Every structure is written in C-alpha cells, then in structure tokens.
Amino acid sequence: MNTNNDVQRLALCLSGGGFRASFYHIGVLARMAELGLLKHVEVISTVSGGSIVGVAYYMKLKALLEKYSDSEIKDQQYVDMVKELEDQFLFAVQKNLRMRTFANPFKNMFMALPSYSRSDAIGEIYEKYIYRYILDDKKAEYRPVFKRSENYLSIRDLLIHPDADESFHPAEGNISRSHKVPILILNATCLNSGHNWYFSATSMGEVPPRNNNFHDIDKKDRYRRIRYDE
After folding, report:
1. Of the candidates 160, 154, 168, which has an alpha carbon nearest to the alpha carbon of residue 204?
2. What is the pTM of this model?
3. How many CB atoms lie within 10 A of CB 222?
4. Radius of gyration of the chain, Cα coordinates, nearest whole angstrom
C-alpha cells in the first residue's frame, strides 16, 4: 500500500516458482477476496508462475467488471470468482501439462525448427487447458469475450472496458470507481540485454531507466517500448 498525497493505492505482486507459486497465489487471492481487498488493487505485477495464474485471474476479473456496473458488484462475487478459478486451475494442472509438452511426436519434430520451440509448445498447452477452459466453461458465471487472432488468444484482448467504455484508462477512470480496474504487467528478462522486459495489454518493451545516471552503470542500450497499435 503506497500513500502519496493522502491517496492510498494497492498493488499486487505475484512471484515466480512454477505451479507451486501459482497455487500459493490463488490462496493469497482467496484471502484478499475474503478481506474485501481485491477490489482496491490497481496494479498486478507478475513473473513466471505468478504470470500463469495472474492472467487467468485477470480474464475472470475482466468478465466481472465488464458484465456488471460498479454499483452492482458485491464483495462475495470476488470470493466466488477466486473459488471458481481455484477449481478450474486445479483441473488444468491435473492434466499433467509438463508431460503433454512432449506427448505429441509431431510437435517434437517441429521443435527442431528455428520457428518453433518448447516455449511455443507449452504456451499452446497453457492456452488449451487453462485459458480456453476458463474462457469456454459454460458452467462459469463470468465468461469474457475474447477475439481470436490467428486462432490464438491475444494479450491485447485483456484490456478491460467497464460499462463498454472503449476509452477507459485506469489512471483516470479508477478515481471514481469503488471496484478498481487494475493494470496487468507480465515481467520477463530480455536475453539480448539482460534488462527487465514487460508485457501489458497495450504495450511491451524494456523499462526505461529512472535517470541518466543509470547509463554510467549499465552501458547496454535499451530496447524501446512498443505499443501494439503502432
């Protein structure tokens, strides 16, 4: 919780550690929902195992915030949403996702090509058993509508538009909302530079240095931030 000019803002950081971290974070989300804290979160920053569950939670949150107006949402809906996420995530992990990475002999052959890697394979498996399961579960109350881009889910479709407001931006719009729309940041490392690389629903790139003194310590150039709509 950060206090600046008497304005309190809450951010949630989900660390890495594979599926163990993912399930731990679901427990954190569940407790925060019980305490009525999730509605106050304005930034969700994740890495590795935290990103896996962070995106899944964000998909469900997107559906909740777009289906109901700010005044209609109840604290119990956050509790129910996280419980539903727990059940769906457990279902996916029980499919032994790691072994499925190598279960398809044709995909194993493709991994020998420079245009396809093990990361592509596991990404497809995560999408099939985690994200599309959340998306297409007819029993789920919250069902976000995502556009398909070349048969894949697109990170750009994670943008949340409460009240069907396409121009909504959390920095300004959250001021008047009781149930905040958080910004999702997926963190990684750029192999070419060793710098932090992040993905959001609107852009990706390296984090710019805080001041010019950083160049005296790190001489490597930084890749610029790229917006998807450029």
Report:
1. 154
2. 0.86
3. 18
4. 19
